[in-house]
Amino acid sequence: MIKNIIFKYTRWCLLFSMCIIFSISPIQAKGFLRTDGTKIVNDNGEVLLRGIGLGGWVLQEPYMLQLSGVAKNQTDIRRRISDLIGEEKTSEFYAAWIRNGVQKADIDSLAKWGFNSIRLPMHYNLYTLPIEKEPKKNENTWLESGFFLTDSILSWCKANEIYLILDLHAAPGGQGNDLAISDASDVKLWNSAQNKTKTVALWRKLAERYKDEEWIGGYDILNEPNWGFQDSEDMNGNKEQLNAPLRQLYVDITKAIREVDQKHFVVISGNAWGNNYNGIFPLWDDNMVISFHKYWNHNDDQSIAKFLEYRKQYNAPLWMSESGENSNTWHTNAIKLFEYNDIGWCWWTYKKMGFNCVMEIPTNPEYEKIKAYWKGEGTRPSEDEAYKGVMQLANYYKVENTLFKRDFTDALFRQVKTTATKPFYNYLLKERTSLVINASDFDLGRNGYAYFDKDTADYRVSTGVKGYGNKGRVYRNDGVDIMPSDDALSNGYCIFSIEPDEWVQYTISVRKQGNCKINISTKAVDGAGMLYLTVNGRKTQLFKTSDSTTDWNVLEVKNVNLKKGINTIKVHFVNGGFKMSKIEIKR
């Protein structure tokens, strides 16, 4: 990616980074992260990493731009954009994308929310040229703009006392047959001595540059290798028994790092997307972390048992370096499992388009037209339309223009420690006023406490059956199903796919005790439904919803007594067949 950007913006990156670095007061670090037996520690003692990955920034995976099934990797995305707007404007887009994607405000926000570490997924071509473009064979051209970008992030991490862990996400040539994660088109790392040499040299260069940086947490030397060394039909290395080339590359990289840096820990990753460690052990360095990735399986002891055994057998720390892409229920339970077992974690991912992330990148009409064209569902956009669409997307990539998912961070931090709920907003019902609560703004909290839904997560790896959590995949990441709504008086979303015995809870503050009327807006999907309320534990009668499938209708619950102070209102669904968009409380 972005050779043109690299040369065009080297000077800008240099000046920008120098301004950032010299404008920040020195931070008193707490010592290098290092291993101490099975613990990761600094000078103050044990450190449990609670991190986030910056996926999609310098390495775009198609699904993060809602291009699954359209583009195979970042190179393909870039080619498609260039076909629409030309190479010069494409370079302009990628420059804006990189410039906007991670700024000081992003790192400040991550620190505020509770993250103490960041995993930086690096594309090698920000730092060096592909072997086929090197002016001299078997030599390495170093691209300062990539290093300066890393310097900038490091300076912001220092200011917030957050550790930055360098992750080679896309290695020279590509590290596996999953082309999207490494931006590979024809995997050549494992059958190219030149690419292996360049990978080793890149890590030596990085270590040489950052050897004295205490806020560099460590070196995650190869993300998710997935390759069948013994059997070419074992595309992703799931059945691999020896992993000899992978181990040898790790040994070579570690040796190169230790030639210049004896302080930072080195992270290794198994084959088959990080989890197949056959043939990798025993360890060859005394400052090494064993990582693993975890997706779409049960959150029980058995799911991490082999890694706990590795930790015990080889006396080295574990780090769950990538997980996510699931519901809040799954996330909370996974982190509870990790922290109970003293395993640090890093979530995936910070920003993307669509569902289950910290910050959602909004779309725009012109980009939607681009997507439709690429999917064969629309006409080719004009050059002006396409340029507007991608540049608006880059503008929406700024943290101030993304959509913060408060339920997501609440699940990662607060819900791990407590079953207590909290209001989605601080609702206050005053005297002689009404209060509108959008149905999708039910309380923050775990399933069974803030809401109850029968399908709360995706356990497909364990069960063979895909789960959904929120089937509508919009607005929130809880188990409750939410979809866009045509109720003009709501926030544009409604609860749908309601099943018997499910419920949602809303907590409000009331200024003065008294009776009120609660109006619930519903629309039928498949006949009339039934519901009742419990208000501060007191159950109302059953109510039948409208059977109209065309209009939003109001169900009135009269003479509901609310006390002064905190009140909880639960809407219980006796059966489904309808949607609910909002609740209005009138004094």
Report on the architecture of this protein.
By secondary structure, the chain is α/β, with parallel strands linked by helices. It is globular, with a radius of gyration of 26 Å. Helix 4 (87-101) packs parallel to helix 14 (383-396), helix 12 packs parallel to helix 15 (406-412) and helix 13 (365-374) crosses helix 14. The longest helix is centred in the middle third of the chain and has 18 residues, at 193-210. It contains 17 helices and 27 strands. Helices cover 30% and strands 23% of the residues. Residues 1-26 have low confidence and may be disordered. This is Cellulase (Glycosyl hydrolase family 5). It comes from Dysgonomonas alginatilytica. Residues 94-352 form the Glycoside hydrolase family domain.
How far from one another are the termini?
60 Å
Described by strand count, sense and barrel closure, the largest sheet is: 8 strands, parallel, barrel
The CATH architecture of the largest domain is Alpha-Beta Barrel
Task: Specify the oligomeric state.
Answer: single chain
Mean pLDDT: 95
How many separate structural domains?
2
Number of helices: 17
Low-confidence stretches: 1-26
The name of the CATH superfamily of the largest domain reads: Glycosidases
- How much of the residues is beta strand, in percent? 15-25%
Helix content: 25-40%
